[in-house]
Amino acid sequence: MSRIPVTILGATGTVGQRFVRRLARHPSFEIAHLTASERKAGMRYADACDWRLEGESWAGLGDRVLELCDPGRAFSPIVFSALDCEVALSVEPAFARAGSLVFSNASAFRMEEDIPLIVPELNADHLELLAFQRRKRGWTGGIVCNPNCTTVVLLGALGPLHRAFGAQAVFAVSMQALSGAGYPGVSSIDATANVVPFIRGEEDKVETEARKILGLLGPEGIAEAGIEISASCNRVPVLEGHTIAASMRLTGSPSPADLVAALEAFVPDTAGLGLYSAPGLFLQVRREADRPQPRRDVEEDGGMRIQVGRVRSCPILGSKLVVLGHNTERGAAGASVLNAELALSRGMV
Amino acid sequence: MSRIPVTILGATGTVGQRFVRRLARHPSFEIAHLTASERKAGMRYADACDWRLEGESWAGLGDRVLELCDPGRAFSPIVFSALDCEVALSVEPAFARAGSLVFSNASAFRMEEDIPLIVPELNADHLELLAFQRRKRGWTGGIVCNPNCTTVVLLGALGPLHRAFGAQAVFAVSMQALSGAGYPGVSSIDATANVVPFIRGEEDKVETEARKILGLLGPEGIAEAGIEISASCNRVPVLEGHTIAASMRLTGSPSPADLVAALEAFVPDTAGLGLYSAPGLFLQVRREADRPQPRRDVEEDGGMRIQVGRVRSCPILGSKLVVLGHNTERGAAGASVLNAELALSRGMV
Amino acid sequence: MSRIPVTILGATGTVGQRFVRRLARHPSFEIAHLTASERKAGMRYADACDWRLEGESWAGLGDRVLELCDPGRAFSPIVFSALDCEVALSVEPAFARAGSLVFSNASAFRMEEDIPLIVPELNADHLELLAFQRRKRGWTGGIVCNPNCTTVVLLGALGPLHRAFGAQAVFAVSMQALSGAGYPGVSSIDATANVVPFIRGEEDKVETEARKILGLLGPEGIAEAGIEISASCNRVPVLEGHTIAASMRLTGSPSPADLVAALEAFVPDTAGLGLYSAPGLFLQVRREADRPQPRRDVEEDGGMRIQVGRVRSCPILGSKLVVLGHNTERGAAGASVLNAELALSRGMV
Amino acid sequence: MSRIPVTILGATGTVGQRFVRRLARHPSFEIAHLTASERKAGMRYADACDWRLEGESWAGLGDRVLELCDPGRAFSPIVFSALDCEVALSVEPAFARAGSLVFSNASAFRMEEDIPLIVPELNADHLELLAFQRRKRGWTGGIVCNPNCTTVVLLGALGPLHRAFGAQAVFAVSMQALSGAGYPGVSSIDATANVVPFIRGEEDKVETEARKILGLLGPEGIAEAGIEISASCNRVPVLEGHTIAASMRLTGSPSPADLVAALEAFVPDTAGLGLYSAPGLFLQVRREADRPQPRRDVEEDGGMRIQVGRVRSCPILGSKLVVLGHNTERGAAGASVLNAELALSRGMV
After folding, report:
1. Residue B331 has pLDDT above 90, yes or no
2. What's the CA gap between D36 and D45, in Å, rounded?
3. Domains of chain B, each with CATH number or no CATH
4. pLDDT per residue over D73-112, tens digit each?
5. Are residues A162 and B205 in contact, defined by beta-carbon separation less than 8 angstroms?
C-alpha cells in the first residue's frame, strides 16, 4: 500500500523536528514537503535547522529543500502544523481550504466550536465535528487540533476518572519542563536552580480545553463537561515532562483503591485500532512512593505513555495524585500524529 | 548589658551552621557551647565541620572545641537545637529538665499539646503554653518549637488571611528546595533536571502544624483552627526557598484586591518589639506577573521575609496565590532565633 | 550453544545495575549469581536495589535472591565486579583463586604489573598477561581490569593518535559527570550550578593508567609508554558523560587535518571480531563547532562510542581537541563486558 | 566634593544593570544619563528594563528616562559602556571625540595599539597610552578598555606569577558561567545538565588580550609579553563565575610553595590608592582541596576578588592551579568602574 504524502509546517522548530523524526519512517505517511518561514524557505533542511534531538540528524532528510508555508507550493492531503499561533491563524485555514486535513499543534483554533480537539484515547468520537466544520466553513479539508501539553497530561488521569466516576472539580498544579517553551525558549539565566511560577496563557488553556475534550458530542456540537478546573502553572528546571500535582472531587467519593482500579481498567477509545504511534500502555499506575519522576520516567513508550502515582485521599476534594506526561511528544508532535492515524483508521482521510 | 550564654546543639549540620552564623555576633546572645555527636565531640569546630555557607568560615569560631550534647557539659540558659528528630527526643528534654529554655527546630515535640509551636508574627501568645508545660512536666526550663519549613512559608500568607477573613480550606502544592533535606541530603543523581513528587512525612506536618499554630489559646490549651488543609510536597532542583502554589477558601469570598489589601495591612504580633532577627518587612506582596522566584527573591531581609505573588481568583476555592520563603532561615535557624528573641522580649528568659 | 554462567559482584550499585541490564539478555553470558554485601544478601534483588536506570526495572531479575560475595556460594567461570576498591582487594582474588576469570571495574589491581588493563580496541594483546599472572599468583582464574572512566575517554582519542604519530605529552582537563561518583555520590548541594575542581585520586589514575595501556607488551611484561600526561579533573553538573579538553604533542607535528584523517582511519583491535557490546563506530569525529556535548551525544551506540570534536592547533603542544565518552558504560560496565567478550573470542575463557 | 556626572551606555542589559547598581551610590560618580537603543529611548528605566539583579530594583532609578546613545543628548565627562561590540564601534568614538573618557567593557577596541587595556592591579601604567591615543586620534576624551571576562580571571593568577617569575607558556581550560553570554544568552535547553565545549571568539580573546596586558609600555607603545597561551573555553551550567584550570611554565621552575608565596606576596598597583571598588583582597590562595568553587566563592568582595586553589606541580609545564573570578563584576562592570577610579586617582579625569 502506498503511503500518504504529508506536509510539515514549521519543520525547523523543536516540535517540527519531532514531527520529522516521527514521520520519516512512518508506515502510513510519507514526508512530501517541509516548510519554514520566508527567511528559511529555499534552504537545505540541514542548513536551516540546528538539529536538537537524539538520533540521526535531520532524520536523514537534511538534503530536503524547505518550502514556503503555502498550499500552492507545499500541498499534501495531510498536513502537520508546528506553527506558532499567530502564523497558524492564516496558514492553517489556507491549507484546509485547499483540501488538506491539518493536524495542528497550535492553539489558534482549539476552542472554536467546530474544530475537533482530540485526545484519541479519550474522545475519538469528537472527530465527527469535521463534517460540521466542513459544512460551516465550506472547506474540503479541515483542521483537527490536539490540546495544550499540560492539558493532555492532566487528562491522562482525569479522563479515565471522569469516565469511571464523573469529575466535579479538579485542582492542578503543574511543574513544567523547559522544552514546553520551545527553542531557545526559557533563558538559562531564568531557569537555573529556579522556579518561575507563571506561564503566560497556560492556566486558562488547561481550564478551558479540558472541559471541551471531556464534553459530549451532540447534534448541537459539543456540550462542555461541567467540571470546575483550577490550574496553577509553574516552570521548573526539567528538560522534558510536565508533572502535575492534582486533586479531584469525583462523584461517589471513590477510595484511592477505587481510583487505581478504574485507572488500570480504563480502555482507551483507540484499543484494538493498532494505531502506529499509540503507546503500548496508555496509562500506567506506579506504586513506588516517589514516582513518576520526569527525568527517569518520561520517555516510556516513546513519550506517549501517561504515568500516575501517589494516588491517595485529599482532605478537601477527596482524591489526590501525581500525573506525568511528555510535553513535546504526548503533548505535541506525537499527539498530532496519533490524531492523524485515528482519522485515517476511521476513513476520514 | 551582658549577653546571655547559649548552646547550639548539632552545630555542624547545615541548620547548625546557620545558627552559628546568626548567633556569632548577636546583640543579646553569646555562644557558650557548640555540641555535636560523640564521634565529633572533642574536635575543633573547624576540623569537624565542612563550612557550607557564604561569609566567614565557621563564623570565626573555628577554634571552639565541640562538646557532647549533655547538659552536664554544655548547659546554657538558652539552647538552640538543630538535632535530628530521634536525637532530639532524648536530648532536648534533658536540657529542659536542667533548666534550659530550648528553642528547637526538630519535629520531635511540635505537636505535643503543651509545647508552644511558634511563628512570632502570628501566634506570639502561644508562648504562654510554657507555664502549662513546666507544671505538667516538672521542668524548670522548657521547649519551644518552630514549625516545619514548608508550614511556615504557607503560614506567611495563610496566617494574615485567616486573621483577616477566616480560612476554611487550603490547598498547598510545594516546590521545595534541596537544602530542606540537609547535607548531603538529596543525591545529585536524583535532583538534577528532575522533580521528586514526594517528601517523607512532609505533607502530614504541613496539614497538622498549621492548624495548631492558627489555633486559639484558651484555658484548656490550644483549640486547633478548623481549617481543612491538603498539601502535596515536591522536591525541585532549587537551592534555597520553598515555593508554594496555594488556593484558599476564605469566609466572605474576598476579591483578590481584598486579599492584597489584607496582606499589606497585616500587623505582625512582633510589631514594635524591635526583635533583632525580625525582617524589615514580614510580608511582601509582589506585583510582577512572574514573581516571587526562589533563586532571585529568597534572600530578602536575610531570608526572613515572606513573599506573596500572583494573587488571583480560584474557580474552586475562591482565592489563589504563590508564596515563597527561605526554608533554612525563615523555616529553620532564623525561626528558632526569632522565637528566642520573642521570649526574651516577653521576659520569659 | 549454551551461554556461560556469570556472577555479578556488587549488583545493587549503579555500575552493578548496568552490568545486570547489559547481561540480562546477552547472547554469550547468562547471569547465574547476583551478589551484594552481607547486609543485603538473602534479599530479593527488587527489595534490595532501588533501580536507577531506564528500561525494565531490575532487567526482569527482581525476584533473584542476592548472595554473598563468596566463591563458595556464587562461583561462575566468569565474574563481573562492580565492587568498591577496598572490598575488591580481597574478594576478587578469592574468585580468581577459585578459578573464575574476573572482569573488574575496580581500581584495586589496575596498576599491578601482571594484571591486564584493557581497552579492547587499543591493547587487546595485553590480555596475554593473564598467563604470566596465573603463573605468578598460582591462580587458575584471573583478573582483567578496565581503566578508570576518565582514562578510557582520553584514550579514545589519544590511543589512535599515539598509534598514528607517537604521542609525547598530553594535557587533559576533564569536566566529569555526577554519575562517576556512584549513588548517592555527589550531594545536590555541592553539584547544583557549581563546579567542584577536585576529584580525589582521579588525576593520578589518568596519568598512570594511560601509560600502561599504551605500553608495549614484551617478554618482561609491559613497558609503559613514555608519554608525559598532566590531568586536571573537575566535577560539573552533568548526568552522564565525561568531556575532556585535551592538548597533545605528537611526533612530526601533524596538522589538524592529519589528526582527523588518522582518527577516522583508525582500525580498532576488535575489528572483525563481532563482539556483541562493541559499538558500531568506536570513534566519531564531529565537525560541528560546538559538539560533542555530553547531554546530547553521550548515548550513541549504547554509550560505547567515543566522540571527538574541535580538532585544532594548539600554540603550545601542537594539537588540541575535545573528547567525550560515557563514564558508566564505556568507562565502567560496558568496558568490563567488552573485555569479557574479547577474552571469549580469544579462547581464553 | 561634588561627584562627577557619568553616562551609562546600554543601561538595560545585564552588565548595564550592574553598572547602574555599582554607580547609584558611588562616592565619586553620579549617574547623569542612562542610554539605550532607539527602541527603548524615551521610556522609563523601570518600564524598559527587566531588573535581573538582587537588591533594590533599578537601584532606585526606575523613574529615570532612557536617552539615545548620542553625546549630543547624553554627554558626561565619564562614560561607562556596556554596548555590544558592533554598536560600540561607532558610539564609543563619538563620545571620545566629544570629550568623554569612555570606560568600555566592549571588545571593539581592546586590541588597538593606542587603547589602554587595563587591569588596575596589574598594569596601571598602561593608562599612559591615553596621551598617545589623544594625539593620534585627535580626541579630547578617550577610550579605556577592560579585558574579556575570561582573560581577567586568568590574569588574576598569571599576572602576579609573571611578575614574580616570568611566564613562558600557559594552558587555560575555562569552565564559564552562563551569565557571560548576557541575557537571554544561552538557552536553558542547551545549558541544562550539559557542557558546551565552544564559545565563539573567546579562545582568541584570551590568548591575545593577556599578552597585551602583561606587555611593557615603552616609547613605541606596548611590547606584548612573549608568553605562549593556549585557551580552551567551555560553557558549564553555573550562574556566575568563570573557573579556569591552568598550567604554566614559569622561569626558574618554582615549586608550588614558591608559587603560593609569590601569589600571597603580590602587591597590586592599586595598593594604597584607596579605590572605592577595589576588593579588600585582590588575590586569595585557598588551601582546601576542593576550592574555589564558583557557586560558593565567587561573590567575595563584591565579586572583585580573584581566588586561586590547588596550586601543584604539572608534569609538563611545571605548575598547575585553579583560578576563579566573577565574570560580570571582576570581568565586566566592576572592572570598568575600577578603571575609572584608577584614572581619577591619577588625575586623568
Report:
1. yes
2. 9
3. 4-146+333-345 (3.40.50.720), 149-325 (3.30.360.10)
4. 999 999 999 999 999 999 999 999 999 999 999 999 999 9
5. no
φ/ψ of B119, rounded to 5, equals: -120, 105
Q: What is the SS3 assignment for A324?
A: strand
What average pLDDT does the segment C76-102 reach?
Answer: 97
Mean pLDDT of B288-310: 96
Residues of chain B above pLDDT 70, percent: 100
Cβ–Cβ contact C38 with A under 8 A: no
Separation CA D184–CA D200 (nearest Å): 16
End-to-end CA distance of chain C: 15
Give the pLDDT score at A55. Answer: 80
User: 10 Å Cβ neighbour count for A271?
Assistant: 12
Residues B223, B169: contact at Cβ < 8 Å?
no
In this complex, the residue of A192, A193, A245 whose CB is nearest that of residue B232 is A245
Q: Which residues of B touch A234 (CB under 8 A)?
A: 175, 243, 245
Q: What is the mean pLDDT of residues C172-178?
A: 98
Confidence of residue A116 (pLDDT cuts 50, 70, 90): very high
Least-confidence region, from A42-56, B194-208, C88-102:
A42-56
ipTM for the whole complex: 0.96
Side chain identity at C141, as an amino acid letter? G
Q: Find the mean pLDDT for residues D264-287.
A: 97
For residue C292, give the nearest of C257, C244, C333 by alpha carbon.
Answer: C244
**H or E element at residue A211:** helix A202-213
Report how many Cβ contacts below 8 Å link chain A to chain B: 122
**Contact flag C192-B52 (C-beta cutoff 8 Å):** no
DSSP assigned state of D44: B
> B299 and chain D: CB distance < 8 Å anywhere?
yes
Euclidean distance between CA atoms B237 and B189, whole angstroms? 11
Maximum alpha-carbon separation in chain D: 60
CA distance B221 to B113: 7
Q: Which three cell numbers stand for residue A68?
A: 514556503
- Cα dihedral angle (D287, D288, D292, D293), rounded to 10 degrees? 180
B264: Cα within 13 Å, side-chain hemisphere: 11
D154 phi and psi angles, rounded to 5 deg = -60, -45
- Any idea what DSSP says for residue A3? P
A203 is written with which cell numbers? Answer: 492556566
Expressed in angstroms, the distance from the first to the final Cα of chain B is 15
Say what the alpha-carbon torsion angle A153, A157, A162, A168 is, to the nearest 10 degrees.
Answer: -80
Q: Is C86 exposed, middle or buried (0-12, 13-18, 19+ CB in 10 A)?
A: exposed
D50 in reach of chain A (CB within 8 A)? no
CB atoms D290 and C320 under 8 Å: no
Looking at chain C from residue 231 to 250, which residues have their Cβ under 8 Å from any Cβ of chain D?
Answer: 232, 234, 236-239, 243, 245, 247
B30 touches B8 (CB < 8 A) = no
Residue C22, C-beta contacts closer than 8 angstroms, at least 6 positions apart? C277, C333, C334, C337
Question: For C301, which DSSP code?
Answer: G
Residues in chain D with CB shorter than 8 Å from the CB of B193 are 192-193
Neighbours of B, requiring at least 3 CB pairs below 8 Å, are A, C, D
Of residues D237, D230, D222, D170, the one with CA closest to residue D203: D230
C-alpha cell at B215: 489555633
Per the omega criterion (within 30 degrees of 0), is the bond before C184 cis?
yes
A233 given a catalytic annotation: no
Q: Taking CA atoms, what residue in A is nearest to C53?
A: A296
* E strand segments, D87-141: 101-104
> Is A145 marked active-site?
no
Confidence category of residue A316, pLDDT binned at 50, 70, 90: very high
Cβ contact, residue pair C185, B186, below 8 Å: no
Q: What is the pLDDT of residue A21?
A: 97
